Recover the amino acids of this structure.
């Protein structure tokens, strides 16, 4: 299974967040939603989770 990554640096924010989350898709989606709510003040909705799922990228293997 391909690991997924959510990287806040790819999206501008007022907090200039640098958090990167990686792991299995469900783990990353859950952690990214919690982060979006607690740090970026988003509301945890199905729409937010769908946007976050679209935001995820495949993790690149380490060299």
């Amino acid at each position: 299974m391909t690991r997924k990554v959510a990287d806040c640096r790819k999206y501008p924010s007022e907090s200039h967040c640098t958090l990167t989350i990686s792991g299995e898709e469900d783990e990353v989606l859950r952690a990214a939603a919690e982060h979006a709510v607690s740090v970026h003040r988003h509301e945890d909705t199905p729409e937010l989770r769908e946007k976050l799922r679209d935001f995820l990228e495949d993790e690149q293997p380490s060299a």
Residues 4-58 form one domain.
